[in-house]
Amino acid sequence: MENLVYIALFAPLVSSLFAGLFAMSPRKTFVGVVSSLLLFISFISSAVLGYHIATTGANVHVTMMDWISVADLHIPFGFIADHVSVTMMVVVSLVSTIVHIYSIGYMDHDKSFNRFFSYLSAFVFSMLVLVMSDNFAGLFIGWEGVGVCSWLLIGFWYHKPDVSREENPSISPSWAANEAFIMNRIADLGMLVGLFIIFWSTGSLQYDVVFSQIPNLAPAVLTAAAMALFIGAMGKSAQFPLHTWLTDAMEGPTPVSALIHAATMVTAGVFLVIRANPIFSVTPEVSYFIAALGTFVAFFAASMALVNRDLKRIIAFSTLSQLGYMFAAAGLGAYWIALFHLAAHAFFKALLFLGAGNVMHAMHGELDIFKMGGLKKQMRWTYAYMGLASLALAGIPPLAGFFSKDAIIETAFNEGTLILWAMLVITAGMTAFYSFRQVFLTFLGDERYKEFGIHPHEMYGFVLIAMSPLAILAVIAGFFRDWFNSFIIHLLPNYEMSENTHHLALILGAIVLVVAVSGIILAYKKYAKGLKRSEKTENGLIYKLLINQYYIPKIYEALITKPYAEISKLMWTKVDMRIVDATVDGIAKFIYKSGDGSRKMQTGNLSNYLNWMAGGALALLFIAVASSVIG
Amino acid sequence: MVTPIQVTVQELNLPLLVPMLIAIAGGLGILVIDLLKSNLDKSLYVMLSMIVLFADMLAVAGLTPNRGFFDLMLVDGVSIVSQMLIIVASMLFIPLALTSKRFHEFSYPEFFALFLFMVAGFQFMVSTDNLILIFVGIETASLALYTLIAMHNRSNSFEAALKYFTMGALAAGFYAMGSAVVYAVTGSIELWQVKEALSISSGADSTIIAVTGGAVLLLVAFAFKLSLFPFHTWAPDVYEGASAPLAGYMSIVPKVAAFAVALRIFNIYIDLGVESVRIIILVLAVVTMTLANIMALVQEDVKRMLAYSSISHAGFVMAALALGTTKGNAGVFIYYALFMFTNLGAFTMLWISRHKKLMYSGRYDHPYEKFAGLIKIMPIGAVVMALFMLSLAGVPPFSVFWGKLFIMSAAVDAGYIKLAIIMGLNSGIAAYYYLKLIVYMFLKEPVFNVDTIYYNISKPLMVIIGIAVVATVTSVFFFDVLLTYIYTMISASGF
Question: What b/e string do you get for A429-442 counting C-beta neighbours within 10 Å, with b at 16 or more?
């Protein structure tokens, strides 16, 4: 079993290095094939580990080597496959494998094909380090690793020039990559502080040691640690106010959006909260804040998705919104429900993104849904996949999203936080609306793309087949809810609805369902027959507010970016050039001048040299005598 | 009435002489071969010299610390370590004769014979504590060295040899005077007896002036050999006049030998608490490392820059000698063991770029401009040279860094915090001129007549550079072993 842990972890690394060998050479299909195979091996190993853990209930814990051992600090390079991490491993490796296969088709015209696979596999490796580590330090390494890979992949088309915000809200891939990276740095500082607090108060970073010490710790320390860790989670999972990078990250190739910015990396924050649940469950204030923030983000992101016209951005907003759901569940103490929604969401959201990738591929890079319509004819399979994924996302039974999201909304009711519950219900309606607005505008109605001279075509057959496991999982994952519950409570605290909620469960489910279905019907009425734009709505305050993302990117620019740039410039011209540089240059000039002066003794004249020797001898004698007289 | 000396062969302990005898016999052998058949190819002599040096090294490795040969010879840890350094550096030097172009001096078998005699001279120098034998060793080695420099057969080589010779003569005078004063005060020229005599008489005010005066005279002689300010004036001119490998060799081997002797002599004064000697050594060291650094800044020629940098490094090491601790004394040899590869490597890189006849510019052979854009002409060469520069600048993890670190920690341990700070500041200044070359190599556009520059390269040179690179880069792995070996050897000799 130990070997399986290593195989699952290192197969993606091998894949990355292998693809890296060909990074500079022209496109070679076998690079993609080999990478996908290695990822598949990783998936099989993870699945076998999962089966092993499910049947025996025993964790697999390996310590590869001692990594840091300084004074009191001992950090081994250890990996653990337990109920939580094996769930993540299976989800990550499965989605990664599919995305790798998908990329063979999607990236077929890209001249950096090989490099792409190298980055993508490197990401999977980092993600697995993140979820499999048995200590916070390893988690942090993976955390930073996925950050770097995300930066590389968002900026994959770094050669595209910067354009104005009106033309492209994310300016350019390299800009978006930097934004994502810098935003995450801010949050990572919080995370680091959290790790320092933990190490400082418990003397260890190993999960088991830290968690066993929790009863001995002061509540203030725990609250501080929980808050700091959650700030880290907010960055990676793009929670308000650090959310702007996620939509801009859509500048990366679509498989990247599917894998990193929907299914895996962005859920790392949720994973962290779940992993550190012993800390969060004893800090109710922080937990409640997490739940409230999650609910707010769910609502807030869904509202922005209502009016957006960019296919991928809509899905990105929906990812944000669903991450909000997960945090709501985790904050309310229903960790296993959060993890369940995380897994289910990974399946249907990856499917949705890959479908969007098909559309984008067919439309030659066009993403504006107002320029699409009627694609059903050409892209039957993609339509089916996206429709299915949207149904799952909207929470229509019996698809996966229904079971997982309904459980979260039920939790909010069960906890008595009725405002949260109401907001989550409304969000469910908005989710259904925007999902189907997008589906209908893309696939139904008049064929608006003809005006632009685009000839769409369906994706390659093998790509569509590769997507099928996701589609199947999006349909059936929900049925495993009870099984998953019994599996995961070996490690996570169980969460059960109260008697009262239990009685009301059917009614509560019905309310959510009615709201969701009416969202779909509304979308159908408005958009299925074609696009009718109304000047009045589009000029309205709310529409303007939403389409501009509440003006938050602009506010950030005006309040943070620009003043920061101004201050930097001031520091550069005034402080750095006038004071720092001048001082340094002054010292250098002085030393240089004295060099010029002293080189004069090097006349090349032998008599002078002999004089120097004699003079030197006298001077030495003088110093010696003087020092022995004084001393 | 002179009584005949009665000694048995056993007491003579002749094996102690074997290493030097091998070198001398090798040199004579080369001369004999030349007599039998002249005009043999230089590669034969290079190989013969290598074999002789290798045998010499084996003989040194087989030595056990002892005295012998009428008590003139003293083989202890210091002697073995410095002989090893001398021989290894010599073995790195000799193959550099195998350039792709033919250079005058290497076509003479006398060159190799003189070289081996010089090695023997250095070996004698470090293997005795008799002031007269030290003198004989110094002069044997120096006279051979003057000739080797002059054999480069350029007008500035003759000038260099002559300057070195004249100033060397003056230094020899100082040495002789110093020894005479020591003999006058203590009645002995055996250093162990000198120490005994001084420790009995120390404290007496009448002798302190004479003791100090003798020490100062000796120090002047060694300051000349070690090129310490203001006795260093020969060094830049001589380095410039000598061929690049010989300049590199001179920055290491004669200094190792001189340091070994200086350690034997001045450690006596420092041990006995003659503070004035310690102070003048410190002053010399600090002034040397600082002024040489500052002068290196303004050089336009890389070889002259390296000359000043070698002076500065010598000053750095001299400071370790003043500490009077085992750590400091061991630091001297550890520093040179690490510095050796890097510095020889750097000079060899200059050698590669040396044209047979043409001077690069009117004044200098290796101005900075010559290396402009080297990365585009000879990428590996540029990287290797950059590596040596970084190492000389003391950038971790390259070899000289460990040496600097060790000596600075020795200074701190001995309580000389200020000295350590000065050392650190000097390393900072030094980084400027080393990095200047890197800037030229990597960031400037190449000059036009590049095809005439880098053509002196050959397989043997590449091997030597390869060894230097490996030693420079992997020092992090063998530093510990080296440290343990040298430290035990030095401390076993009582220093």
Answer: bbbbbbbbbbbbbb
Q: Are B167 and A596 within 8 A, CB to CB?
A: no
**Which amino acid is located at B269 in the chain?**
Y
Cα A78 from Cα B51, distance rounded (Å):
53
For residue A524, give both structure tokens. 């159908």
What is the per-residue pLDDT across A98-113, written as a single tens digit (0 to 9) for each? 999 999 988 888 888 9
- Is A605 part of the contact surface with chain B (CB cutoff 8 Å)? no
Q: Which of A59, A56, A68 is nearest to A2 (CA)?
A: A59
Q: Phi, psi (5° rounding) for residue A492?
A: -100, 150
CA distance B269 to B271: 5
Report the distance separating Cα A596 and Cα B300, nearest Å.
12
Q: Is the pLDDT of residue B32 over 70?
A: yes
Chain B CB within 8 Å of residue A514 CB: no
Q: For residue A628, which residues of chain B lie inside 8 Å, CB to CB?
A: 208-209, 212, 274-276
Chain B: residues touching A (Cβ < 8 Å): 162-163, 166-167, 170-171, 174, 208-209, 212-213, 215-217, 219-220, 223-224, 229-231, 233-234, 236-237, 274-277, 279-280, 283-284, 291, 294-299, 429, 432
Q: Which residue of A has its CA nearest to B276?
A: A624
pLDDT > 70? residue A469: yes
Rounded to a whole number, what is the distance in Å from the CA of B465 to chain A's nearest CA?
Answer: 29
Q: Which residues pair with B301 in a beta bridge?
A: B367
- Which residue type is seen at A24? M
A215 has a chain B CB within 8 A of its CB: no
* CB contacts, 8 Å: A594 with chain B: 294
**A594, A608, A631: residue with CB nearest B294:** A594
CA distance A406 to A325: 10
Residue A364 CB partners (closer than 8 Å, separation 6+) = A454
Contacts (Cβ under 8 Å, ≥6 apart) of A30: none
Q: Assess whether pLDDT exceeds 70 at residue A554.
A: yes
> Complex ipTM, two decimals?
0.84
Helix (H, G, I), strand (E, B) or coil at A66: strand
pLDDT higher than threshold 60 for residue A61: yes
CB contact under 8 A, A617 and B216: yes
Confidence of residue B404 (pLDDT cuts 50, 70, 90): very high
Q: Say if residues A129 and A86 touch (Cβ distance below 8 Å).
A: no
pLDDT, tens digit, 9 for 90 and up, residues B123-165: 999 999 899 999 999 999 999 999 999 998 888 889 999 999 9
In B, minimum Cα distance to A587 occurs at B429
Q: Say if A618 is an interface residue toward chain B (CB within 8 Å).
A: no
**Cα separation of B416 and B324, whole Å?**
11
pLDDT of residue A631: 62
Q: Which of B229, B274, B279 is nearest residue A623 as measured by Cβ atoms?
A: B279
Are B295 and A602 an interchain contact pair (Cβ–Cβ within 8 Å)? yes
Interface contacts (A, B; CB < 8 Å):
98
Task: Tell me the pLDDT of chain B averaged across its residues.
Answer: 88
Q: Do B283 and A623 touch (CB under 8 A)?
A: yes
pLDDT(A326) > 70: yes
- Tell me the residue type at B326: T
Task: Tell me the percentage of chain A whose pLDDT exceeds 90.
Answer: 43
Please name the residue of chain B whose CA is at the shortest distance from the CA of residue A618. B216
Residues A216 and A214: their CA atoms lie apart, in Å, by: 5
Cα–Cα distance between A326 and A375 in angstroms, integer? 33
- Identify the pLDDT of residue B469: 93
- The DSSP bridge partners found for residue A75 are A68
* Alpha helices for A415-549 (secondary structure H): 418-443, 461-476, 481-488, 499-527, 535-539, 541-547
8 Å CB contact between B76 and B492: yes
